[in-house]
Amino acid sequence: MINMAIVVLLSYIVGSIPTSILLSKWRHGFDIRTKGSGNAGGTNVFRVLGWKSGLFVMIFDAMKGVIVTTIVARLFWDPTLPFYNRTPFDDFTIIQMICGGAAIVGHIWTIFAGFKGGKGIACGAGVLIGIAPTEFAVSIGVFLAVFFAWRYVSLGSIAAAIAFPVTLLVRHNILYDEIHSYKTLIFFSIGVAVLLIYSHRKNIRRLLEGTENRVSSFSRRRKVEEPM
């Protein structure tokens, strides 16, 4: 169980790296959480600091998810696991999911910034790339379609989170595709979707109230000067 504790802790620490906060303090001298929406995610960086900084943060945050599922999960990997696996789930996929979940939790509740981080979408996307690239590609397509139709990043992110488990269900149960570790992935994907939707609860409230910001309405200068 020591090996398991180590990889989970490392995954949480990697996920906790507050990319947006570090970038905003280093390049601009302020905490990104004091501007715009007050969130430490890539979307707020995009709004406040522009698309180049926003893209950098989103890519870096996604890489955290890729790293924990493809590298950290293998650091102390033992094919026999530190416990006897009595489930039909694939062993290594379980380790990947545990590491990915720890990274997402670290991203949302980062230990390096008072447990107030981003919403986990970019990091979650990286986790999905490392575990199920086909379903990730579909989720990206859904995100882009929703985003360009309505110009809400939050709505696109929520739709993408839901699309992942739905794609698994359709592929396995309707198209009859053979999906490695399906019984493991379906529960994991539903859990991730629920977590990411929960992290967007304030956005959902604003969407229902009609007060959520559209990307087309963003102005770099206005957003930089906007109070929290």
Descriptive account of the structure:
This protein has 228 residues and is mainly alpha-helical. The chain has one domain. It has helices at residues 2-16, 19-28, 42-49, 51-75, 91-108, 121-131, 133-150, 153-173, 182-199, 201-209, 220-225. The longest helix has 25 residues, at 51-75. It is globular. The chain starts with a helix and ends with a helix. The model is unreliable at 218-228 (pLDDT under 50).
Order of helices and strands: HHHHHHHHHHH
β-strand number: 0
Q: What is the makeup of the main sheet?
A: none
Count of alpha and pi helical runs: 11
Beta-strand portion reads: under 5%
How far is the N terminus from the C terminus?
Answer: 43 Å
Q: What is the mean pLDDT?
A: 87
Radius of gyration, in Å, reads 18 Å
Strand and helix layout:
Layout: H1 2-16, H2 19-28, H3 42-49, H4 51-75, H5 91-108, H6 121-131, H7 133-150, H8 153-173, H9 182-199, H10 201-209, H11 220-225
In short:
The protein has helices at 2-16, 19-28, 42-49, 51-75, 91-108, 121-131, 133-150, 153-173, 182-199, 201-209, 220-225. With 228 residues, it is mostly helical.
Descriptive tags:
disordered C terminus, mainly alpha, 228 residues
